[in-house]
Design goal:
The structure is a homodimer of 107-residue chains. The first copy, chain A, has helices at residues 11-23, 26-37, 46-50, 54-66, 85-101, and strands at residues 70-73, 80-83. Chain A has 107 residues and is mainly α. Chain A binds a DNA duplex (30 and 30 nucleotides) through helix 4.
Chain lengths: 107, 107
DNA sequence: ATTTTATATTGCAATATTACGATAATATTA
DNA sequence: TAATATTATCGTAATATTGCAATATAAAAT
């Protein structure tokens, strides 16, 4: 039907899937990489760098924000997006656990 | 428009996004976790375990197969799905590089 | 050869995602 | 205050994803 039956799965499974969904678009990968390269974290040239329209970039940023990966000032001019280090390491850990816990000794 | 403008991004960015997309559904996380727990890699009870219909499971398995994460026998009865260890470690490495290369010293 | 068992494919409906133009909102600058 | 610059939101169109019923396919068992 197009609706993910999230209730059938564990919280951990859903959270990992949701994080993966945010990374599941090259624009969002590119945005995260670009923000991380900025010294001063003023990211108002994101539109020019990525090459998508301003509303689209805004939408992607919102997806990234929703899982808590960005922190900083979000209002007005000269807004300042930065990677939320704690959240970032949290996700990194989740992916790491997932990848290392998979047992591959078969076949 | 609903089409990802993949041509605007690097191969690395697209590949990571594509891998993330496969992990972006709790059913596929659950499927991978279940397969990895099986000793003998005979996975014909996946439908009962996951709780989605057989066609839906088949579809999800196909998504996982498409990025080379599964190997084994794929035809007929008693088919045998297993994690492709090499591919798995390749993806693990890609995610690891992505997570560690992000510079967070800002704000 | 027919039945049984297990997976794949097709077709369709419902929902989600991606993208952008138009416009609104907010803050800075002149 | 008016003009400018920057981001957010709304509305809409196109495409993708998710899920299942129905059906097809393939191998094994009877």
């Amino acid at each position: 039907m197009g609706v993910s039956k999230t209730h059938m799965f564990s919280l951990t499974q859903n959270e990992l899937a949701q994080a993966a969904k945010v990374l599941a678009h090259p624009a969002r990968i590119a945005i995260l990489e670009y923000i991380s390269r900025q010294e001063n974290c003023i990211c108002n040239d994101l539109v020019d760098v990525i090459g998508l329209s301003q509303p689209t970039i805004s939408q992607h940023l919102n997806e990234i924000k929703k899982i808590g990966l960005l922190k900083g000032t979000f209002e007005g001019k000269n807004l300042c997006y930065c990677i939320n280090q704690e959240r970032w390491e949290e996700l990194q850990h989740s992916f790491h656990v997932f990848f290392t816990n998979i047992n591959q000794n078969c076949c």
